[in-house]
Amino acid sequence: METKIRQFRQKKAITQQELADLVGVTRQTINALENARYNPSLLLAYKITKVLGRDAIEDVFILDDVD
């Protein structure tokens, strides 16, 4: 799953570690999310979305269409 985490995180001028601390995960988890190597739980996706100042999970996480 692709994300816009890096883009929004950089706009807010916060590091991977700062974002990780705010949402309760490791920096490595944020790195894996930014590089599309990990799919978050719904709760983690929601927390990241709110910390990044977005209204909808779909603003941050690019969901593949499922038929």
Ordered list of secondary-structure elements with their pairings:
Elements: E1 2-3, H1 5-11, H2 16-23, H3 27-34, H4 42-51, H5 57-60, E2 61-62
Antiparallel strand pairs: 1-2
Helix pairs in contact: 2-3
Describe the model:
It is a single chain. Helix content is 55%, strand content 6%. The radius of gyration is 11 Å and the shape is globular. By secondary structure, the protein is mainly alpha-helical.
The helix content is 55-70%
Q: What percent strand?
A: 5-15%
What can be said about the biggest beta sheet? Answer: 2 strands, antiparallel
Number of strands: 2
Helix segment count? 5
Summary keywords:
2 strands, 67 residues, two-stranded antiparallel ribbon, mainly alpha, 55% helix, 434 Repressor (Amino-terminal Domain)
